[in-house]
Amino acid sequence: MDKGVAGAALLTRSSANSALVLGVAGRDVDDYRSPDGREDHTGYRSDTLLAKYKHKVTEDLTLRVNLQRHEDEDVWYPGSARRGAGIPAPLGTATIHSPEQRRELYELGVDARLGEGTLAAEVYRQEVFRQIRAFSSAKQRDYVRNDVSFVTDGAKAKYLFPVGDDHLLTVGADLWRMRGDPERYIDNNPPAFDNNMRNDPFNKGVIESAGVFLQDEFSVGQTRFIAGARFDRVTGDAARKGMTQTTGLEKSDNNLSWSLGAIQPLNENLSAYANLGRAYRAPDMRERFEDSARGDGYYHVGNPQLDPEVSTSFELGLRQAGAGLQYQLAAFYTRIDDYIAGRVTGANHPQNGLPFKLTENLDKVTIYGLEGSASLPVGAFVADAGFTWLRGKNHQDDEPLFQMPAPELTLGIGQPAERGFWWRAQLRAVAEQDRIATRFTNGTENATAGFVTADAEFGWRFGKVGAFESAGLAVQLSNLADKRYHEHQTEGVSGNELAAPGRGIALSLNGSF
Fold first, then answer.
1. Of 305, 171, 303, 175, nearest to 233 (Cα)?
2. What is the mean pLDDT of residues 268-291?
3. CA 224 to CA 219: how far, in whole Å?
4. Torsion over CA of 488, 490, 496 and 501, rounded to 10 degrees?
5. Cβ–Cβ under 8 Å, residues 433 and 410
6. For residue 2, what pLDDT band results from cuts at 50, 70 and 90?
7. Residue 488, Cα to own-chain centre: how many angstroms?
8. Cβ atoms 355, 346 nearer than 8 A
9. pLDDT tens-digit readout, 178-227
10. What structural domains and CATH numbers belong to the chain?
11. 11: burial class by Cβ within 10 Å (0-12, 13-18, 19+)?
């Protein structure tokens, strides 16, 4: 049985002029058990703190504060464990782990009534800190120590105002600046491996973004439309890429994105919707500048001259609400030009022997599929189902897109209750994923077997109990058949992916007051 403790509490208080939200959550879990036995280094600890405060200064002016902090401790990545190529024999097996990961957000905002509209503006700072270590089983200590900080300062504002009787316009702008400067030390003097040499993957990376946007909401007859467009300029630069490159690192891109969505009621409970849009994703700092070994067993080489991904998407769907049958069905198609990914070249690093993975733009990929869900009351019970089906293609290499999830289907039945006893059982069936990339990955993406898991949950809702307005007790049973499997997207060295958790039970108690 897996062992762990988790808890969360949320306190809300409000008055005529003020509102306060305080939240705290924590988790401490031991190594989980799979059908292969106890999986070492799969436990971790985490905690989350949240504080939001809003104060109405006048009828037309409100100030906001948003503070967040999340921390993970003692996180290991056992799927990264490997020996051989790139790992000197005296080190044994190397495993990546992170003693500490932390994210903090500080945000100040204002909401103001100006003329016929409302202005909302924020300034913020987000700090992300991560310790990355490579542990040697033979030395019983870390031989790579990397501390990474990413600090983002930004501001955003939007003004919402009506135009005539049918249009609701939003205009706005945002800008931010992210700085990253990792400090990595490595022991690379065999056989002692204790020289603590500085070896940064990049130095003084900066990404800056500035954008403006416009959105309009309006109706034509019974059809509701939402149309928007934005223009962004993103610039990346660094003092050094890897250990030697100091030139050719700056790159600026201008990006225009837009969207058009429509919702059309077909009857009282049924509506159709469609979305068409163009979006972009600029390369991140690691994709641009980082040259280093990672936990997937490759030596990654960044590319500061990457183009941004540009995607064009279309989605068409139906939604049925109401007291009886409820369902949602959607079909979608996305084309992505200049898709950013790491190609396994087949060549190895001359010093450490690791295979290269070069970050590049693929000319064109497409992703399309169907997804849906439904629920139907059957007497005192409720039956439900859901499915996803995706296909992806890498047109440049004329093969399936790598790391695509397999089709899956869930079937469930249960007996809900606002008070008293309730239960639900579910089967989840995931198909074999044999559509894998061979050219782009140089034959390193593995097919994944299909699987079926059974889960169940039950409990009791008490309603008002003492000081609690409502309370409930629940038991969750997972992977009842102790099935051995892993998801196709499981991270880790190819062929060494961890099995998912086996049979487990979780007991939870919740209440509100």
1. 175
2. 95
3. 4
4. -100
5. no
6. low
7. 16
8. yes
9. 999 899 999 989 899 999 999 899 999 999 999 999 999 999 999 999 99
10. 200-373 (2.40.170.20), 379-513 (no CATH)
11. exposed
- Please name the residue that has the structure tokens 């000081």: 467
Calpha distance 367→337 (Å, rounded): 12
Residue type at position 459: G
Identify the helix (H) or strand (E) that includes residue 285.
Answer: helix 285-289
Q: What's the confidence (pLDDT) of residue 490?
A: 80
Look up residue 508 and give its amino acid: S
Adjacent-strand bridge partners of 170: 160, 215
Based on its alpha-carbon atoms, the radius of gyration of the chain, rounded to whole angstroms, reads 26
Written as six digits, the tokens of 468 are 């609690």
pLDDT at 100: 96
Report which of 107, 196, 109 is spatially closest to residue 145, judged by C-alpha positions. Answer: 196
Model confidence at 467, pLDDT cuts 50, 70, 90, reads low
Determine the 3-state secondary structure of 59 from DSSP: coil
Tell me the whole-structure pTM to 2 decimals.
0.88
Rounded distance between C-alpha atoms, residue 392 and residue 369, angstroms: 9
Report how far residue 397's alpha carbon sits from residue 311's, in angstroms, rounded to the nearest whole number. Answer: 19
Residue 4, pLDDT score: 84
**Which DSSP category does 201 fall into?**
S
> Is residue 124 scored above 70 in pLDDT?
yes
